[in-house]
């Protein structure tokens, strides 16, 4: 009987931890929109506004589906990034200019290690900042992803040839 009680206690602790993690994942300081997908579903479209930490003149809006009662959220997401302030050469001097760029945001989408990430990549030839959002878990044979670009044309950081 004692082993059975220990098993029940362990299970209740696990459920409590999962509940806390799900509750915390629903909290977001950057959330600017929340659209219900209907009366008979627990899924919502959440919209977050994220300012690039190294280039504060760029804001990205990311929409993704969150399922309130599921252990894992769907992998689909969309991203739109725009220039919302100055972009200077000093800001560009601090970014990773490699082909793989730099992860500027990540969000857990599952208790099973699935994440949504936003990666900034600089295209030096076209002088464009690219923002790629993607899921770290394969879904139906592919990794879900979306791309948005912010050209430097017209900013202080643009270098004319």
From TrEMBL:
Endpoints of the signal sequence: none
One GO cellular component term: cytosol
Highest taxon above the source species: Bacteria
Protein known as: CreA
């Amino acid at each position: 009987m004692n082993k059975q009680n220990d098993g029940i206690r362990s299970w209740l602790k696990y459920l409590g931890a999962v509940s806390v993690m799900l509750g915390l994942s629903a909290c977001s300081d950057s959330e600017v929109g929340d659209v219900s997908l209907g009366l008979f579903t627990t899924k919502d479209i959440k919209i977050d506004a994220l300012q690039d930490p190294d280039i504060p003149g760029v804001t990205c809006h990311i929409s993704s589906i969150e399922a309130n009662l599921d252990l894992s959220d769907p992998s689909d997401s969309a991203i739109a990034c725009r220039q919302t302030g100055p972009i200077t050469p000093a800001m560009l001097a601090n970014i990773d200019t490699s082909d793989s760029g730099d992860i500027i945001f990540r969000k857990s989408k599952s208790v099973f290690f699935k994440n949504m990430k936003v990666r900034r990549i600089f295209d030096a030839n076209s002088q464009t900042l690219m923002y790629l959002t993607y899921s770290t878990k394969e879904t139906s044979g592919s990794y879900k992803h979306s791309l948005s670009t912010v050209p430097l044309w017209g900013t202080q950081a643009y270098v004319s040839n």
